[in-house]
């Protein structure tokens, strides 16, 4: 059992980035002084089979702070930058310890930004400074809203400064940040913000407690999700279970299953599009195989049998052409959020 600790820092910095994030993170960290008095925890969308050392080495070249891969149970230290483990969520606890988990993917990503932001909001409240950088789709928007609800400070990269502006624009469409500025100006701002006195702590909303516990795998059951919303006639792309709708305003619609998978409306639509495309390619392959079999069969037949077989093959040709037209068309909705 680890000894209980009291964090020595006044603030923590949590940063979320996706596509274009390497350049933005490099520029941001380069602007922080070597004596920066707060820990920095970063989630950047990375593929499950990525080499964690690659991002670590690239960022370490851009900053005087110590950059390291997060390890469960390690205490946060000021002046350190913590990076996620591929295919794992990265979160923080109330005693200032790191948590690396294999919880269900959120917004089609693991690591995802929202779980980090929610965990920081829950455990550090007004002492959190959350930063959302470049990326596609809208991971991080819900997490920033949680930070805002708990009295923390929200910073969004100016979309005009972002290589991929969709993620910052999503957040700006749903909340009023404390600051919206280019990455090149964030170092000076952060140095000023961490030198101030923290505000009085605020109560943590119950829905945030529930969602952060689900991500931490402390609880993940139907009763917990029932408190967050209502079941809807949609299935979870991740496990096939029922989805619950969380939030009612069009811009705030999110969905959860009782296993722990979570989606914004945009990420759910993107995942459905991907599954539709995969299904259509499977159907095309099966139709073409059957057409080829019928062609071989028809060649060996005569008379009425051959005529019937060729008619069946003609029907399959029609289906094949229709599927090809669908696959060549652009499905509605957002594309996959490639890092």
Description:
- With 339 residues, this protein is α/β, with parallel strands linked by helices.
- It has 3 domains: 12-193, Methylesterase CheB, C-terminal domain (Rossmann fold); 220-260, no CATH class; 268-328.
- Helix content is 39%, strand content 17%.
- It has 10 helices and 13 strands.
- The protein has helices at 21-30, 52-60, 113-124, 141-149, 166-174, 186-193, 206-215, 222-226, 265-299, 303-328; strands at 12-17, 40-44, 66-69, 80-83, 89-92, 98-101, 128-132, 153-157, 179-181, 229-235, 242-246, 254-256, 262-264.
- It has a 7-stranded parallel beta sheet with strand order 3-4-2-1-7-8-9, with helices on both faces. Strands 10-11-12-13 form a 4-stranded antiparallel beta sheet. Strands 5-6 form a two-stranded antiparallel ribbon.
- The longest helix is centred in the last third of the chain and has 35 residues, at 265-299.
- The radius of gyration is 24 Å and the shape is elongated.
- The two termini are 37 Å apart.
């Amino acid at each position: 059992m680890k000894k209980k600790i009291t964090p020595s820092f006044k603030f923590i910095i949590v940063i979320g980035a996706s596509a274009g994030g390497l350049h933005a993170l490099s520029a941001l960290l380069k602007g922080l002084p070597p004596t920066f008095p707060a820990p920095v925890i970063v989630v950047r969308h990375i593929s499950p089979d990525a080499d964690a050392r690659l991002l670590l080495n690239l960022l370490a070249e851009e900053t005087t702070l110590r950059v390291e891969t997060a390890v469960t149970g390690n205490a946060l230290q000021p002046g350190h930058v913590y990076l996620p483990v591929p295919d794992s969520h990265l979160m923080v606890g109330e005693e200032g310890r790191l948590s690396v988990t294999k919880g269900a993917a959120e917004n089609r990503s693991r690591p995802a930004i929202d779980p980090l932001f929610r965990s920081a909001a829950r455990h550090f409240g007004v002492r959190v400074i959350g930063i959302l950088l470049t990326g596609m789709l809208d991971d991080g928007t819900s997490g920033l809203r949680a930070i805002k609800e708990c009295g923390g400070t929200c910073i969004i990269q100016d979309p005009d400064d972002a290589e991929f502006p969709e993620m910052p624009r999503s957040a700006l469409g749903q909340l009023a940040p404390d600051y919206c500025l280019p990455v090149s100006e964030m170092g000076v701002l952060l140095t000023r913000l961490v030198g101030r006195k923290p505000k009085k702590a605020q109560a943590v909303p119950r829905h945030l407690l529930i969602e952060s516990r689900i991500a931490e795998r402390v609880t993940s059951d139907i009763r917990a999700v029932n408190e967050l919303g209502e079941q809807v006639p949609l299935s979870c792309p991740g496990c096939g279970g029922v989805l619950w709708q969380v939030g009612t305003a069009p811009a705030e619609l999110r969905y959860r299953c009782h296993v722990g998978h979570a989606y914004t409306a945009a990420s759910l639509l993107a995942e459905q599009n991907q599954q539709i495309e995969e299904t259509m390619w499977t159907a095309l392959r099966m139709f073409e195989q059957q057409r080829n079999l019928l062609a071989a069969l028809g060649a060996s037949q005569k008379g009425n049998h051959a005529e019937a077989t060729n008619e069946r093959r003609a029907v399959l040709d029609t289906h094949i052409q229709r599927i090809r037209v669908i696959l060549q068309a652009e499905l509605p909705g957002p594309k996959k959020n490639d890092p």
